[in-house]
Design brief:
Layout: E1 4-13, H1 31-43, E2 49-56, H2 65-73, E3 78-80, H3 83-92, E4 101-102, H4 116-125, H5 127-144
Parallel strand pairs: 1-2, 2-3
Antiparallel strand pairs: 1-4
């Protein structure tokens, strides 16, 4: 709980991104944006995990043993409901996007499913720092005049 994940890609299991690209097109963040987030996180004295996030639109997947085994098989470092959609829609609309995820629960274990109490602990102990890193990442890009685009869109 409270760990930071800086995704290098997202698996498009949510369906919304299918309106923008065929299934074989990966959901990728802006490299420069993720690089800046990495730098700011390290400057704040924090470590982070990196890897591929699985994005789903499924509710209550935590109780599906086969699905959880699939997540382990594909080596997803996290599961969420937004990242692949944001990356894909941003790319389709030429808007550089990134993600800095905060681990708020650990539903792969029976006692890791989010509760009101555990959510309150995460909010109290980790959300402020997470938001500060995100804001400072954008400020750093602005100060340095770096482009967030990782590809030419034209």
């Amino acid at each position: 709980m409270g760990d930071i994940i800086l995704p290098i890609a997202a698996i498009r299991g949510e369906g919304a991104s299918d309106d923008y690209f065929p299934p074989e097109v990966p959901a990728l963040p802006s490299f420069n944006l993720q690089r800046a987030a990495s730098h700011v996180t390290r400057e704040a004295g924090l470590d982070y995990w990196t890897g591929t996030v699985y994005t789903t639109n499924r509710r209550l997947w935590e109780h599906d043993t086969n699905f959880k085994e699939y997540l382990i098989q594909i080596r997803a470092v996290a599961i969420d409901m937004e990242t692949a959609t944001i990356f894909s829609v941003g790319f389709a609309n030429q808007i550089p996007c990134g993600a800095l995820l905060l681990v708020s629960d650990q539903p792969m274990t029976p006692d890791g499913v989010k509760t009101d109490k555990s959510d309150s602990v995460v909010t109290t102990n980790f959300v402020q720092k997470h938001m500060e890193i995100g804001i400072e990442t954008l400020r750093e890009l602005q100060r340095k005049g770096n482009s967030m685009r990782h590809l030419r869109f034209d």
